């Protein structure tokens, strides 16, 4: 009798766990985009001091890399800012000729770096309603790293409104560019909808 009772408890527990996992997935896919908190960078006026490092748009060496696959940063140069570790990669922002570039440095290049920042991202599935340009430069509406077509799926990760007063207000997204996973920015006014 005790064995039967234990089996019933286990079956009910496992059914509840499956049901709550399903509910969490549904909640994530219908979550209000405005609930996503913006992420921020800590300024490092004189860089972070790890020499020249490659930079990818997403935390993977298979991810899209800007500047024709050669994006890199001199981390001991002028103003390299960080937003913390994401999937073991350091999320940085650094100056380029046309503004700023945001991307990820592989962990092997910044071993031992201590960050006081922590970026928390959602993963809300969305669909483009029209063509949408993607940039890795949150200080320019003209630098694009790719184009999403109408009907293309992507995920909104966060809001980035650091330069909103200057007319640059963005969603930070994950998409595919040239068949490679990429993260970048789209204007908050672009036409898209949350996927049901």
Features:
single chain, 196 residues, alpha+beta, SH3 type barrels, five-stranded antiparallel beta sheet, three-stranded antiparallel beta sheet, 2 helices, 12 strands, 17% helix, disordered N terminus
List the helices and strands and how they pair.
Blueprint: H1 2-30, E1 52-54, H2 66-69, E2 72-74, E3 80-86, E4 89-96, E5 99-105, E6 124-128, E7 132-134, E8 146-148, E9 153-163, E10 168-177, E11 180-187, E12 192-194
Antiparallel strand pairs: 1-2, 3-4, 4-5, 6-9, 6-12, 7-8, 9-10, 10-11
Commentary on this structure:
This protein has a domain at 121-194: SH3 type barrels. The protein is built from 2 helices and 12 strands; from the N terminus they run αβαβββββββββββ. The chain has helices spanning 2-30, 66-69; strands at residues 52-54, 72-74, 80-86, 89-96, 99-105, 124-128, 132-134, 146-148, 153-163, 168-177, 180-187, 192-194. A hairpin with a 2-residue loop joins strand 4 and strand 5. The protein is globular. The model is unreliable at 1-30 (pLDDT under 50).
Query: What is the topology, as strand order, of the major beta sheet?
Result: 11-10-9-6-12
User: What fraction, in percent, of the residue positions are helical?
Assistant: 10-25%
| Shape verdict | globular
Q: How would you classify the helix and strand content by structural class?
A: alpha+beta
CATH topology of one domain: SH3 type barrels
Tally of DSSP β-strands: 12
Integer-rounded radius of gyration: 20 Å
The major beta sheet can be summarized as:
5 strands, antiparallel
What is the averaged pLDDT score? Answer: 85
Low-confidence residue ranges:
1-30
* CATH class identity of one domain: Mainly Beta
Task: Give the percentage of residues in beta strands.
Answer: 35-45%
